[in-house]
């Protein structure tokens, strides 16, 4: 997808004029990373960001500070239009972004200890794919999606399916698919950590079941498993 429209051109020219810097946190660098995800087909929507040690939203004691969309209509908002992403960022340069899962990609989300182990094994197996780190706590493995078939009977559920309201139910492995989202790099968190790419979105999306096999073994080895048994079927 071409990202050279007037909004992206204006935004990048504005940032170059204000600061001739290649800093990874500069607005132009952030936009470049976001547009890399857009080119990969990831649908994006704006999210809250840190406001000091709190969330930028108005919710008292926000349960997911700086990790949720700013609008309840995020599923409708989520887009791969580079001009719209540039407009959102121009209005709020500090905004984080989420990507809607279950359309182009799913995300398998695991504790960092299991993620590091699994990433080494996947690399040894020659299985490539986008991978992000959420601070020091979680790893996000982006995979091909199970999709949204025309015939709903062909869509197979999993007890690991994670949505924004049920993430605490799966402290080990989480599977973000239809109706869910994850933060997308680059994103800042209130504790000063960040969401960053380990392998960028230009990597091919691997088969989710192949990645799942490696992740479940890694989670078991480090003791990062959910309390309840799960089945796919």
UniProtKB/TrEMBL annotation:
Query: Which residue numbers delimit the DNA primase/polymerase bifunctional N-terminal domain?
Result: 34-209
User: What InterPro entries has UniProt attached to this entry?
Assistant: DNA_primase/pol_bifunc_N
* Low complexity: compositionally biased ranges: 1-11
- Provide ranges: composition bias, Basic and acidic residues: 12-23
User: Could you tell me which residues belong to the region Disordered?
Assistant: 1-26
Identify this protein by name.
Bifunctional DNA primase/polymerase
């Amino acid at each position: 997808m071409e990202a050279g429209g007037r909004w992206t051109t204006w935004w990048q020219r504005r940032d170059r004029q204000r600061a001739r810097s290649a800093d990874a946190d500069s607005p132009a660098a952030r936009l470049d990373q976001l547009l890399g995800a857009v080119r990969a087909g990831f649908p994006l929507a704006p999210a809250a960001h840190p406001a000091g040690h709190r969330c930028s939203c108005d919710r008292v004691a926000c349960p997911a500070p700086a990790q949720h969309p700013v609008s309840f209509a995020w599923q409708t908002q989520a887009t791969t239009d580079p001009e719209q992403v540039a407009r959102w960022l121009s209005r709020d340069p500090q905004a984080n972004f989420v990507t809607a899962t279950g359309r182009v990609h799913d995300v398998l989300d695991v504790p960092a200890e299991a993620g590091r182990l699994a990433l080494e094994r996947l690399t040894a197996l020659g299985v490539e794919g986008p991978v992000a780190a959420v601070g020091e706590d979680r790893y996000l493995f982006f995979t091909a999606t199970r999709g949204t078939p025309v015939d709903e009977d062909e869509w197979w559920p999993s007890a690991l399916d994670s949505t924004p309201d049920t993430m605490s139910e799966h402290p080990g492995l989480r599977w973000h698919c239809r109706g869910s989202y994850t933060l997308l790099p680059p994103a800042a968190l209130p504790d000063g950590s960040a969401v960053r790419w380990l392998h960028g979105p230009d990597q091919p999306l691997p088969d989710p079941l192949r990645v799942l096999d490696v992740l479940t073994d890694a989670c078991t080895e480090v003791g990062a498993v959910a309390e309840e048994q799960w089945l796919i079927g």
